[in-house]
């Protein structure tokens, strides 16, 4: 069971790292004037929503008696 928990934790942490990297790239592109302000706001909003969803799923995965593994 501990192997399953560690694999699930690693998957969720990798997903969070990918979303944070996307946010950093969007900010860099906006600073370099490669994307418009509207596009920047839209992408940042999407990334924030994804980050919150994955964070909540991670918390559910860690603190529920049965393990939920959703990709």
- Which range does the strand content fall in? under 5%
Total DSSP helices:
2
Described by strand count, sense and barrel closure, the largest sheet is: none
Helical content stands at over 70%
Instruction: Give the ordered list of helices and strands.
Output: HH
**What is the overall shape?**
elongated
- Please report the distance between the alpha carbons of the first and last residues: 19 Å
Structural class: mainly alpha
What Rg do the Cα atoms give? 15 Å
Organism: Lactobacillus taiwanensis
Protein name: G-protein coupled receptors family 1 profile domain-containing protein
Transmembrane segments: 6-24, 49-70
Keywords: Membrane, Transmembrane, Transmembrane helix
Kindly list the characteristics that best describe this protein.
single chain, 71 residues, mainly alpha, 80% helix, elongated
């Amino acid at each position: 069971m501990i192997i399953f928990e560690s694999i699930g934790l690693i998957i969720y942490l990798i997903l969070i790292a990918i979303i944070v990297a996307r946010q950093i790239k969007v900010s860099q592109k906006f600073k370099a004037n490669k994307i418009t302000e509207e596009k920047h706001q839209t992408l940042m909003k999407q990334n924030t929503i994804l980050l919150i969803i994955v964070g909540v799923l991670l918390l559910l995965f860690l603190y529920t008696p049965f393990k939920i593994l959703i990709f």
